Amino acid sequence: MGAKMTTDLAVSPEILSAPPRRTALFIREFLRDPLITASLVPSSRTLARAMVPAGQPLGVVVELGPGTGAFTVALQERMPTRHVGIELNTLLAERLAADFPTVEVETAAVDRLERILRGKDLAGRVDHVVSGLPWQAFAGPVGAELVPAIARVLKPGGTFNQFTYSWTRWAAPGRRQHRALRANFGAVEVSRPIWRNLPPATVYTCRRPQQMELR
Questions:
Q1: What is the pTM assigned to this prediction?
Q2: At residue 148, what are phi and psi to the nearest 5 degrees?
Q3: What is the separation of C-alpha 134 from the centre of its chain, rounded to a whole number of angstroms?
Q4: With helix as H, strand as E and coil as C, how does 93-138 read?
Q5: Mean of the pLDDT values across residues 37-62?
Q6: pLDDT tens profile 60-87
Q7: Residue 134's pLDDT is what?
Q8: What is the C-alpha separation between 87 and 107, in angstroms, rounded?
Q9: Which residue(s) pair with 62 in the sheet?
Q10: How many C-beta neighbours within 10 Å does residue 20 have?
Q11: Predicted pLDDT at 165
């Protein structure tokens, strides 16, 4: 990229201050395929901060649907020991890998989560999973297996952070997703609406994953 790296982050300085570029790319990909890129604009910095586990070293992080890297920036600022990103959109995955060279970017559907992590010897060893996936990703027979798979790849003390747009939380898919979280985690905390995101968002923080046999 030819950009000088900062001393603290393996991210070029212009990435930290390039929301217009990320927004334009996000909008273009949304218009090209709204089923894969399911939001019109990337998440805000305020939401990104709420999605990053606080008060402890990050350790091993897996990011689902990182898109243009709104959450990736906040995670990289905490300097995880390993950071895996799984992104279905090929263009976004390529841009993410170029912008964040220390992130292990995998261009794949999230139903490959366990296989990808087994290949990296990380299954059952993940400290945090952070998801920018829309609720549609958790629908249908394949999507119904995603929350249990996330619980399986985490350490016993690991956490899973998922956001949803506040206005969709009470819709049938949102309620179904909440039930899946409670069925697979011993504790599920729900944040207040984050009004400084567009649209406003709510963060689920899930702890005490149910320890099941890895598939």
A1: 0.79
A2: -60, -35
A3: 10
A4: HHHHHHHCCCCEEEECCHHHHHHHHHHCCCCCCEEEEEECCCHHHH
A5: 76
A6: 999 999 988 989 999 999 999 999 999 9
A7: 80
A8: 5
A9: 84, 129
A10: 8
A11: 80
Average confidence (pLDDT) over 157-165: 92
Q: Is 157 exposed, middle or buried (0-12, 13-18, 19+ CB in 10 A)?
A: exposed
Residue 128 to residue 176: CA distance in whole angstroms: 22
The per-residue pLDDT of the chain, averaged, comes to: 81
List all residues 6 or more positions away from 94 whose beta carbon is below 8 Å from its beta carbon.
Answer: 107
CA distance 36 to 141: 17
Burial label for 173, CB within 10 Å (0-12, 13-18, 19+), is: middle
Pairing of strands 154-165, 126-131: parallel
Contact 188, 178 (CB under 8 A): yes
Phi, psi of 199 (to 5 degrees): -75, 170
Per-residue confidence band for 24, with pLDDT thresholds at 50, 70 and 90 = low
Domains with residue ranges and CATH for the chain: 36-209 (3.40.50.150)
Q: How far apart are the first and last CA of the chain?
A: 39
